[in-house]
Amino acid sequence: MISGQPRTHTQVPVNIGTSVMGLRYKDGIMLAADTAVAYGSMKKTKHAQRMAAISSDTAIACSGEMSDFQELLKIFREKHDGDVIENDGALFLKPTDYFNYLSRVQYQRRMKGDPLWNGSIIGGVRQDSGDVFLGMVDLYGTKVEGNFLLTGLAAHYCQVLMQNSWRADLTEAEARAIIEDCMKVMFYRDKKASDEIQITTITKDQGVKIHDPYRIQGEWNFQFFHDKTNEFWRPIRIYNN
Amino acid sequence: MDLENYTNVNIFKKVYEKREVSSIHNVVEQPHHLLKDNTQHAKGGFNPYVNNQGTTVAIAGKDFVLVAADTRISQGFNILSRDYSRTTKLTDQCVITSGGMVADIETLHKLLIAKVKTYQRQFKKTPTVESLAQLLGNTLYGRRFMPYYAFNLLCGIDQNGQGSVYGYDAIGSWDKLTYGVQGSGSELGAPILDNQFVGHNYLVKTLPDDVSVVEDTGKDIINSIAERDIYTGDQVEIVIVDKNGIRVKREPIRRD
Amino acid sequence: MKIEYAKEAVKQGSTSLGLKSDRNVVLVSLKKSPHDLASHQEKIFDIDDHMGIAIAGLTADARYLCKFMRSECLNYWYTHDSHHPTERLVNKIAKKAQVKTSHPGKRPFGVGLLVGSVDETGTHLFETCPSGNYYEYIAMAIGARSQSAKTYLEKNYELFASLGWEELAKHGLRALKASAQETELTEHNVSVGFVGADQKFRLLTAEELRSYLAEINDSMEIA
C-alpha cells in the first residue's frame, strides 16, 4: 500500500471462476460448475474446485473471485463450527439460515465498499423435513430463489435451455443431462469456461455429495475443422516451382 | 494577458471534456453483466448500487388502500426473478411497497419490521400509519450519505379509517398523497393515475369507494406499463388493506 | 454470599409456573400489587413470536433481561430469517448471570426466569437462576410458596404430553391455585401466556382469563 493513499479493497476480481448453475430435481438439488480459473484471459488453473459443503445438508457453488470464495468458505466454516460447538443436541442452522446469513455478509461488505466479488448459489435439503432450498446471492446481497439458477454468462446463454427443459420431476440422470448440455454451450461460447465440470448433489437420503470432476464430450468433428478452412476462405497460394 | 480565459468557448470546452458525470443514474443504468471484463471497475472501483427495476402503484380509497405491483426483478437485461414480492406487511393496517435495488429494499423492510416490533413492545400499541410515515422519512434520511436505493410508497388505513398513501424519494423527502407510483414504470403510470383519480390540482380530494373498480384499474395500469416498460412484467401482485386486515392476490401478465 | 440473597429474592417473588406438552407451552403467574391502590406488576413478557418468559423476583432485573432477550431474538431473525434456538438464548442469559456472581463490585440478578418456547427441536421450558445455572423441565414452579404448585405439577405431569394449550392452562391455573392459598385468583392478579407449534406467543385476554378461572373455581369446589 502506498502511504498516504486510502486503503484499497477488491476493486477488480483477479482470479475468476466463470458461471455456476443450480437446479432442483426430483430428489433434491444439483449444483454444477466447471473447474477452470482464469487470470485475465489466461486459464490459470484447470482443476480447481469451485463448490463446497457448508454443512451436512447445505452446499455452495461460486463464480467470481476465487480468493473471495475461499474467504466465504472460511466465514461459513466458522459459522458451522459455532453451530456444532454448542453441542446442544441439534444443528440449528438450516439451508435458509446459511442463505440469509450469506446475504447479510455480502450486504455488509458492499456497504464497506469491500465486496466479496462472487455470485453464489446455495442449495440444501433438510434431512428432517425434506424441505428443498435453492437460492442465489450476488455481491450486493441480492437474494433470489428459484427452481433453476444461473450466474454470470450462463444467465445469458443457458436461460432458455433451462427454461425449456426444467421440470419438477426430473430424475438425477435427466438433471445431469441438462447440466451437461448447458456446460457444453458454455464451453463452446465462454472463453473462460472449460470442458471439465464438477457436480454436487444434495439429497434427503445422502446429504451433500460432491462428485469427482469429469470431462464433457464436445463435438468438434466437423469437416470444417479437418480442412481448417474452406473453398471461399482458402488464401491464394503462390507456388514457385 | 491570456485571452483564452476570457472566452466562453473554453468554459464550454472544460465542461465538455469533463463529461463523466457521476450521478446515480449515470452509473446504475449500465447493465452489470454487459461490462467488458469489469474495466469500469478497474477505473472507477466498485459501484455499490444496482437498479433491479420494477413498478409499484398505490391508490388510497375511502376505507381501503390498494397496492398493485409487478413481480419482476432484473439485473441489466437479465431477469433475476419472476415472482418477487416488493410489498411487505408492517402492521395489520399498513404495508410498504418499493422499487429500486432489491438488497436495499429488503434491508429497509426488515429494519422497519424490527422497528415496529420494538415500538409495539415499548408503547403497548401498534404504530399508526402517520407515525410510520415519519419513521420511514427519518430512517431514509439517516442514510443520507449512502442512501437506500429504494423508492417507497407507505400505504395504510389512518386513524379515521381512511386510506392513505405516502410517497418518498430515496433520501427521505416525503408527502401524503391520494395515489402514487414508483419504480421503472413511474413515468408511464403517473399520467394514467392522474387521469383516472382525483389528483394534485383538486382542492377537494374525494377518494374512490369501490375496491373492485380500483383493483381493476390498478391491474390495468401495471398491465399497461408492462406493455411498454421492459423491466415490468410477469405477474401483478394486488395487496388490499382495509379494516379487516390485508389480502394478497396475484395474476399473471405478459412475461416477455 | 451475595448469590444466596439473590436466590432469596427469587423465593420472595410471587409464584410463576410453566408446563408443556408435545406442541404447547403455557406460562402462568400470580401478580402482586404493592398496595391496594396500586396496579399489579406484569410478570409474563413476550420475547418473540415463538418465545415468552414468566418471572419471579426483581421485576427491574427481569425487564433488563427481557430487553436483552428481545434484541437477541431480533438480531438472530435479522441475520438468519428464523427463530433463535431456545437453549442457546438461555445459555446467553446464564453467561450474563455468571459474570455477576464472580465479579466483586457487581450484584447478581435477583430474578429467576421460566422460558417457554417452541423451536426446531420441539417445545421447551427452561428455568434460569441468579447463579448462572439453568435447567430444563416438563413443568416447574418458582417463587413464593411454589412448593404446593410443584406438588400439583409432580402429581399430574404424566398427563401433559398430549394436551392442547387450553387444558394445559387449566392445569396451570389449578397448580397456581394450590400455591395462592387464601388469595383469590382473579383476571387482575393472574397472567397466562402460551405458545404452540403453530400458535404465536400471546397472553390471554381478561375475558378469556375470567372464563377459565370461573371454570377452575367451579371444578375445584366440586372436588
UniProtKB/TrEMBL annotation, chain A:
Pfam family for this entry, one: Proteasome
Example GO BP: proteolysis involved in protein catabolic process
Primary site of residence: cytoplasm
Keyword DNA repair: no
InterPro entries with a match to the protein in the record: Ntn_hydrolases_N, Proteasome_beta4, Proteasome_bsu_CS, Proteasome_sua/b, Proteasome_suB-type
Locations listed in the record: Cytoplasm; Nucleus
Keywords linked to the UniProt accession: Cytoplasm, Nucleus, Proteasome
One Gene Ontology term, aspect cellular component: nucleus
Claim: Disulfide bond is one of the keywords in the record: no
PROSITE patterns: PROTEASOME_BETA_1
Family in the record: Belongs to the peptidase T1B family.
Functional summary from the UniProt entry: Non-catalytic component of the proteasome.
Protein name from the UniProt record: Proteasome subunit beta
From TrEMBL, chain B:
UniProt-annotated location(s): Cytoplasm; Nucleus
Gene Ontology terms: biological process: proteolysis involved in protein catabolic process
Transmembrane segment boundaries: none
Family annotation (InterPro entries): Ntn_hydrolases_N, Proteasome_bsu_CS, Proteasome_sua/b, Proteasome_suB-type
Main location: cytoplasm
Keyword Cytoplasm: yes
GO cellular component: cytoplasm; nucleus; proteasome core complex
Keyword entries, A-Z: Cytoplasm, Nucleus, Proteasome
UniProt keyword Cytoplasm, yes or no: yes
Source organism, top-level taxon: Eukaryota
Function: Component of the proteasome, a multicatalytic proteinase complex which is characterized by its ability to cleave peptides with Arg, Phe, Tyr, Leu, and Glu adjacent to the leaving group at neutral or slightly basic pH. The proteasome has an ATP-dependent proteolytic activity.
Family of the protein in this entry: Belongs to the peptidase T1B family.
Subunit structure: Component of the proteasome complex.
Protein name: Proteasome subunit beta
Biological source species: Stylonychia lemnae (Ciliate)
Organism classification: Eukaryota, Sar, Alveolata, Ciliophora, Intramacronucleata
Gene name as annotated: Contig13674.g684
From TrEMBL, chain C:
One Pfam family in the UniProt entry: Proteasome
Entry keyword Oxidoreductase: no
Keyword annotations: Proteasome
Gene3D superfamilies noted in UniProt: Glutamine Phosphoribosylpyrophosphate, subunit 1, domain 1
SUPFAM superfamilies, per the entry: N-terminal nucleophile aminohydrolases (Ntn hydrolases)
Any one GO CC term of the record: proteasome core complex, alpha-subunit complex
Alphabetical GO biological process terms: proteolysis involved in protein catabolic process
Chain segments annotated as transmembrane: none
InterPro entries membership: Ntn_hydrolases_N (IPR029055), Proteasome_alpha (IPR050115), Proteasome_alpha-type (IPR023332), Proteasome_sua/b (IPR001353)
Family listed: Belongs to the peptidase T1A family.
Name of the protein in question: 20s proteasome subunit c2
Lineage: Eukaryota, Sar, Alveolata, Ciliophora, Intramacronucleata
